[in-house]
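Researcher: We plan to redesign the surface later, but first we want a full-length starting point. Tokens attached.
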């Protein structure tokens, strides 16, 4: 039967997300996206949008996929804040260790590229980064930290989490990354006792 070639939207978005994740926004061309998705340029524009629109969709997809995992990890924060934060970092360490995925983190990469992003894309990258802090803050508040302590530690833990992605991309070993997490969880343990 003759007609339009069909494609799976989820598969195309995942392929685009991996391309942006692997090369970064600035170093990904529409031709790169075409090769990654198997779609020609006109199909990308008509089905997925221009590069900015597609990148925002991929950033949202990434944030939702891992955000759900972070939320599940932090769900026990009210009763076990240390276990929840450890589980939060485990989500990142598992993603980093997955050989099927690029090193690093699409959100961390996007945050580092903010100076070269369009204002709308930069704002979206900042927002995605901020969600991680808000997620941690809410969990730490549920774990009975004061507002100020929860905010301070949430900023710290989110920064550590992003640094894990950067360090992995720079070649840090799993043992080194785990040591960073251990120090962070120990700091939280001391803060909770104080």
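Model: Full-length starting sequence:
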């Amino acid at each position: 039967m003759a007609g339009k070639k069909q494609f799976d939207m989820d598969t195309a978005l995942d392929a685009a997300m991996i391309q942006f994740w692997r090369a970064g926004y600035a170093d990904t061309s529409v031709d790169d996206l075409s090769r990654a998705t198997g779609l020609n340029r006109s199909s990308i524009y008509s089905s997925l949008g221009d590069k900015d629109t597609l990148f925002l969709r991929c950033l949202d997809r990434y944030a939702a996929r891992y955000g759900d995992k972070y939320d599940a990890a932090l769900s026990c924060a009210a009763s076990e804040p240390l276990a929840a934060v450890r589980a939060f970092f485990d989500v990142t360490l598992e993603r980093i260790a997955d050989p099927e995925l690029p090193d690093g983190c699409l959100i961390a990469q996007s945050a580092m590229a903010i100076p070269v992003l369009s204002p709308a894309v930069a704002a979206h990258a900042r927002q995605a980064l901020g969600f991680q802090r808000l997620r941690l803050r809410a969990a730490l508040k549920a774990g009975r930290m004061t507002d100020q302590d929860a905010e301070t530690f949430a900023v710290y833990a989110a920064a550590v989490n992003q640094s894990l992605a950067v360090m992995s991309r720079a070649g840090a070993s799993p043992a080194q990354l785990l040591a960073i997490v251990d120090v962070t969880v120990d700091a939280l343990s001391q803060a909770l006792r104080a």
